[in-house]
Design brief:
alpha/beta, 11 helices, two-stranded parallel sheet, globular
Length: about 290
């Protein structure tokens, strides 16, 4: 569906400390966009400012921080904003039975509730303008629930559903909503997830303990050749985000990497028993049960 093109190339990009966010901020700036990147830690904000960005502090799990970041960005942009890229997020690893209520709640605070609260504070400006783009960074895990990333998958399933509803609610407003669904991307995502997992999961006994230790050990090794073949750099996602921001006909969903296309096909056409079987075979082959 055609929507008005963005008239002012002002874009707020969240989660720019590294990976997809950092690559997106750099690529959009090179393409002529006025980018305000966000980060949570002072060291990351300092690094972004050294690169010439007018970076803004943002913790999406904190409502006060969300309001302050939006106000600062709008001041920098002169009151007009063309795009919002909701990239901030993380993955909480662990078998579903090992996750605490607190860890599950925080995963949703960051990946879902903070994302939507930020979007809700930007939308009135976009509605008044009559143009704007909301880009939500989802995952192949938002199509297929992944073992040991169940609560992360749940947040991405939620993002997918909320984005679909928001897109319909915004029909005729000139504001488009697109989902980006990456598969394996060369970022610090896995390393950061496992670091959090060591804190959240290794303090208690669980039948998956040997498996968690195996995952940590793997993270310290370089990827094998097969894994590298299917992993794309962060710039691949950034390029897709740029396309979604600038095209006159933004898609509802953009898939990045072969895994993302395969996941979308499985979720749409494969029966549940077959999805369970394929995921189970893959899981047991890579992480055989240890007594």
């Amino acid at each position: 569906m055609r929507v008005p093109k963005v008239q002012k190339k002002n874009v707020l990009v969240t989660g720019c400390s590294s990976g997809i966010g950092a690559a997106t901020a750099a690529m959009l700036r090179d393409a002529g966009w006025h980018v305000v990147p966000t980060a949570r830690k002072e060291a990351d904000l300092r690094k972004l400012k050294e690169q010439g960005f007018h970076a803004v502090e943002l913790d999406v799990a904190d409502s006060v921080s969300v309001s302050m970041a939006v106000n600062q960005a709008l001041d920098i942009f002169g009151g007009e904003i063309g795009g919002l890229v909701n990239n901030a997020g993380f993955g909480q690893p662990g078998a579903m039975e090992d996750l605490t209520r607190e860890s599950m709640r925080y995963q949703f605070e960051v990946n879902v509730l903070g994302m939507q609260e930020l979007t809700n504070q930007v939308l009135p400006v976009m509605r008044e303008q009559g143009w704007g783009r909301i880009i939500n960074i989802s995952s192949v895990a938002g199509r297929i629930g992944l073992p040991l990333l169940g609560i992360y998958s749940a947040t991405k399933f939620a993002m997918e559903g909320m984005s679909d509803v928001l897109r319909v609610e915004l029909a005729g407003s000139g504001v488009a909503v697109s989902l980006i669904e990456p598969g394996p991307i060369d970022t610090d995502f896995k390393k950061n997830a496992l670091e959090r997992g060591k804190v959240e999961l290794h303090s208690r006994r669980t039948q998956f303990m040997l498996l968690y230790e195996q995952l940590v050990e793997e993270s310290q090794l370089s990827q094998n050749r097969m894994a590298q073949m299917f992993t794309l750099p962060s710039e691949s996602v950034a390029k897709t985000i740029l396309k979604a921001l600038e095209t006159g006909r933004p898609k509802r969903r953009y898939k990045v990497t072969l895994h993302a296309y395969a996941g979308a096909l499985m979720s749409r056409f494969a029966p549940d028993w077959l999805v369970d079987y394929v995921l189970g075979i893959s899981f047991r082959a890579k992480y055989p049960k240890s007594d």
